[in-house]
Amino acid sequence: MQISALSKYKGFIFDLDGTLINSMPYHAKAWRQTSNEYGFDIDEQLIFDMGGASSLDIALHLKNMGNPVDDPKSFVARKIQIFTEHIEELEDFKSIQSILIDAKKRGCKIAIGTGTREPNALKILILKNLMCYVDALVTSELVEKHKPHPDTFLLAAKKLGLKNDECVVFEDGQLGILAAINGGFDCVEVSQDRIKNFYEIDR
Predict the structure, then answer these.
(1) Whose CA is closest to 191, among 1, 22, 43?
(2) Could you tell me which CDD domains the record lists for this protein (predicted)?
(3) Which of 50, 72, 104, 171 has its CA 20 to 30 A from that of 95?
(4) pTM for the complete prediction?
């Protein structure tokens, strides 16, 4: 798609992990290290496949697979601890970040809709000098139903004061893309700092 095609939107909603920053490999390694500490192993591809899901949803999924997760909240806390130790190592996806910055400069509203918890999301956005562009932040604590349910993006649009058809979502994960489509949002699929596909809702 041509970047000029995005000029019709008043609001831009971005996923964080895997969309604005190259963090998914670090998440996958943190999940695997946590699993190993609990006495089992996982295929890191599972974490990529569940990109967009909340940490608690992932922990519950691992437990439902029969793994000795025990208390999912404690399991998640350990994973977050491991991931946080590497936050400063995260690489930027500069091309997608430039779309965010350019949209803001043109007067568009910007939201982040992520399955990450607020403390980590804020830490990353501040570290990457992106928080100054953000008008609304929706993290995992603010919705009961996470991606592929549309609640994250619906709340983001509401916080921006815009309708669904006035916003476009940027996502890398299949769950996030489904969430956008399920919510009636046009969606730009990105992969490794490049635009891959564009999904436009028939209205």
Answers:
(1) 22
(2) HAD_BPGM-like
(3) 50
(4) 0.91
